[in-house]
């Protein structure tokens, strides 16, 4: 069981990375950290958040977010603008390249879901969904797997 589970996770991970590189054709994409992918997802979900809003969503410090966002700005995936209302605050948004990256990721994930559903019976899909929901909750509750 352990070997096949590791193989399954590795296959999904490798396939997703390949899909993102092909879809995004972004220089340096393979050098992005897991945390940077989390920042990108948070920005996508929040629209044009402030650094504070990203930090709150990811439950990490503003200093950590600032460092990560600055690297994403340098890579061309994120744009950062100073707030007109409060000059001390900055808002960030995904660049066109960043949006393409996120959209490619979600499209690939949707395709993986469709592929898995097509390989299983309705009962197996229900069982698999229950198991995955349990695992997701465990990962979310386990501090070892949370973003640093």
Word description of this protein:
The protein has 6 helices and 2 strands, in the order H-H-H-H-E-E-H-H. It has helices at 2-24, 34-46, 51-58, 62-75, 96-119, 122-141, and strands at 78-82, 90-94. The chain is elongated and about 55 Å long. The chain has one domain (2-145): Orthogonal Bundle (Arc Repressor Mutant, subunit A). Helix 1 runs antiparallel to helix 5. The model has no long low-confidence stretch (mean pLDDT 84). With 148 residues, the protein is mostly helical. A two-stranded antiparallel sheet has the order 1-2.
Task: Give a short summary of the structure.
By secondary structure, the chain is mostly helical. It is built from six helices and two strands; from the N terminus they run H-H-H-H-E-E-H-H.
Q: Look at the structure and name the CATH superfamily.
A: Winged helix-like DNA-binding domain superfamily/Winged helix DNA-binding domain
- As laid out across the biggest beta sheet, the strand order is 1-2
| Averaged pLDDT | 84
Q: What structural class is derived from the secondary structure elements?
A: mainly alpha
Number of helices: 6
Return residue spans where pLDDT drops below 50 for at least 5 consecutive residues: none
Q: Based on the structure given, which CATH architecture is correct?
A: Orthogonal Bundle
Classified by CATH, the class is Mainly Alpha
Envelope shape: elongated
Distance between the termini: 29 Å
Order of helices and strands: HHHHEEHH
Measured by DSSP, the beta-strand proportion falls in: 5-15%
């Amino acid at each position: 069981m352990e070997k096949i589970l590791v193989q399954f996770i590795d296959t999904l991970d490798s396939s997703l990375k390949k899909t993102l590189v092909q879809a995004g054709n972004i220089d340096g994409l393979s050098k992005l950290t897991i945390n940077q992918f989390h920042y990108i997802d948070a920005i996508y979900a929040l629209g044009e958040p402030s650094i504070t809003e990203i930090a709150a969503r990811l439950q990490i410090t503003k200093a950590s977010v600032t460092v990560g966002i600055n690297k994403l700005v340098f890579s061309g995936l994120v744009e950062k603008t100073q707030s007109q209302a409060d000059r001390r605050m900055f808002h960030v948004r995904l660049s066109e390249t960043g949006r393409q990256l996120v959209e490619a990721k979600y499209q690939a994930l949707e395709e993986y879901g469709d592929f898995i559903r097509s390989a299983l019976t309705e009962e197996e899909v229900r069982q698999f969904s229950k198991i995955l929901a349990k695992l997701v909750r465990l990962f979310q509750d386990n501090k070892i797997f949370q973003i640093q």
